[in-house]
């Protein structure tokens, strides 16, 4: 890979990392930091910043990329962040939509909303399709990735149970609002989302297996041999 083409993944990943950082910083500047840091979107954008920032640094130093388990997991999580936002929260026909609240966002907060829910998911997907070596994800990763949403749902429900009933933003998302829908409905919602996570994880693994190698993706290192595969003296 030539020097200019080697810079492409470095610059692109650094830009996606910066988009995530700027979005999180703006949200924290305009809101309550403990509340902002309670959202799945914020958790996931922080992960995007850490993983893609580390990946950019590794590409710059010509070191092996971040492990596929983490790269693939972050891609899955941020894609689901974007999909849930656009299909559920920002969709007027969804029973869980927050369109009225989104319409009140202006200025920097509107910019942050787009960075966190649109720019970083699109950037992570483009990085996967155009700059990442294929055939590194495994079916077992799809099951391992479920630990992340399970951790988040557990945190969100515990947080909501511990806060006073009149607390603002007691439950971070309407589909896990146990006070409004009850734990049975929330459990069903979580199971449906978990199944969707797993199905999308498997789809991501399948896509990684069959996609062509992008021109700018690093080639896997070949095994060095000190002898021929056949029996015989060292060569």
Describe the structure.
- With 235 residues, the protein is mainly alpha-helical.
- The chain contains 9 helices and no strands.
- The protein has helices at residues 3-30, 33-36, 40-60, 68-89, 99-103, 107-131, 139-144, 147-162, 178-210.
- α1 runs antiparallel to α3 (40-60).
Can you give keywords for this protein?
membrane, 68% helix, 9 helices, mainly alpha, 235 residues, transmembrane, globular, disordered C terminus
Brief overview, please?
By secondary structure, the protein is mainly alpha-helical.
Form type? globular
Q: What structural class do helix, strand and pairing data support?
A: mainly alpha
How much is the radius of gyration in Å?
Answer: 21 Å
Q: What percentage of residues falls in helices of 4 or more residues?
A: 55-70%
Low-confidence spans: 221-235
Largest sheet: none
């Amino acid at each position: 890979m030539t020097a200019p083409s080697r810079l492409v993944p470095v610059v692109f990943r650094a830009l996606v990392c910066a988009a995530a950082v700027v979005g999180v910083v703006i949200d924290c500047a305009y809101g309550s930091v403990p509340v902002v840091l309670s959202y799945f979107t914020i958790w996931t954008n922080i992960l995007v910043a850490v993983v893609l920032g580390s990946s950019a640094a590794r590409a710059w130093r010509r070191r092996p990329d971040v492990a596929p388990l983490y790269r693939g997991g972050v891609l899955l999580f941020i894609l689901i962040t974007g999909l849930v936002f656009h299909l559920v929260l920002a969709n007027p026909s969804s029973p869980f939509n927050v369109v009225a609240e989104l319409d009140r966002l202006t200025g920097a907060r509107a910019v942050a909303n787009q960075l966190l829910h649109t720019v970083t998911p699109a950037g992570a997907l483009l990085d996967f399709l155009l700059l990442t070596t294929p055939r590194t994800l495994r079916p077992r990763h799809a099951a391992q990735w479920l630990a992340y949403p399970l951790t988040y749902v557990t945190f969100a429900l515990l947080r909501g149970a511990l806060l006073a009933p009149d607390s603002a933003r007691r439950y971070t998302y309407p589909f896990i609002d146990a006070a409004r829908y009850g734990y049975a409905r929330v459990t069903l919602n979580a199971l449906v989302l978990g199944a969707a996570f797993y199905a999308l994880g498997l789809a991501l693994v399948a896509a990684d297996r069959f996609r062509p190698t992008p021109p700018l993706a690093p080639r896997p290192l070949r095994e060095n041999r000190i002898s021929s595969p056949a029996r015989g003296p060292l060569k």
